Amino acid sequence: MVGILEIREGKGRGPRAEGCALLDLPCLRAEIPAPPGLSPARLARRVDKGARLLARAGVRRVVTAAEFPWWEVLYSRGLRPVEPEDFCQALAVPLALAALERCGVPPRQGTVVLSGPRVNRALLRTAEGLCPMVRRLSIDVPDGGAALADWLWREFGAAMADPEAGKRADVDLRFGPAGGGGRVELDLYGPRPELGGFVLRPPKGLEAGGLDRLAVLALLWEEGRLDLEKIRILPS
């Protein structure tokens, strides 16, 4: 089960947990009352109590507000965040197209580089999706990149480019801590992906409230409650 932990301004004796749902996905919500004047130390103890309530109920992953300063408390109770990396990498193709549009470059004239330490499934899927769309695609990946570029050339006849050929890419999609550089750079990895000035908006009618929007979307996508096609990619 997934938990939700929220700090609520106002009076209250202590944390309480109750069932709720995110787009029909059952969750357990723990509310932490934070009356005016509550000291940081006492608030941290309340967060710890809420974390214990969730952990005892079988919760292992938790969604919080985006700027949540008590993750160490949650980690100590065996709770961890919903990681958005897979979700962001699954959106790599539409993110690249949105970045090209913002640069004023039609896809058929655009250059995209895929970078990272190694070829993974998401990078391969992105390469397959972009090859028929863009003018030039390069693979800047030390582990397996050359083999992937050769295969893409044979399979798609894509205009594969050497990432060191001197032409700066319009878009650099990074699947790990490495990069060839581009006019727009998107880090699609780690606990806080950097999406090059874009934000991912939920479909109309689905709002995250005060929760971390990216974590909520990633969770619903993982659980099969949300189609990628319904995600809106907008400038921040």
User: What proportion of the residues form beta strands (DSSP E)?
Assistant: 25-35%
End-to-end Cα distance: 32 Å
CATH architecture label of the largest domain: 3-Layer(aba) Sandwich
Element string (H = helix, E = strand): EEEHEHEHHEHEHEEEHE
CATH topology of the largest domain: Rossmann fold
Alpha-beta classification: alpha/beta
Structure annotation, total helices:
7
CATH classification, class level of the largest domain: Alpha Beta
* Main sheet: strand order: 2-3-1-4-5
Give the low-pLDDT segments.
none
Helix content: 25-40%
Tally of DSSP β-strands: 11
Rg, rounded, reads 21 Å
Would you tell me the overall average pLDDT? Answer: 90
* Count of discrete domains: 2
Q: Could you describe the 3D structure shown?
A:
There is one protein chain. With 236 residues, this protein is an alpha/beta fold. The protein folds into two domains: 2-81, no CATH class; 83-236, Rossmann fold (3-Layer(aba) Sandwich). It has helices spanning 40-56, 71-76, 85-90, 92-103, 121-130, 145-156, 213-222, and strands spanning 2-9, 16-22, 25-34, 61-63, 80-81, 111-115, 136-140, 169-174, 182-187, 198-201, 232-235. It has a five-stranded mixed sheet, sandwiched between helices. Strands 7-6-8-9 form a four-stranded parallel sheet. It is elongated, with a radius of gyration of 21 Å. The model has no long low-confidence stretch (mean pLDDT 90).
Give a quick precis of the structure:
The chain has 236 residues and is α/β, with parallel strands linked by helices. The protein has seven helices and eleven strands.
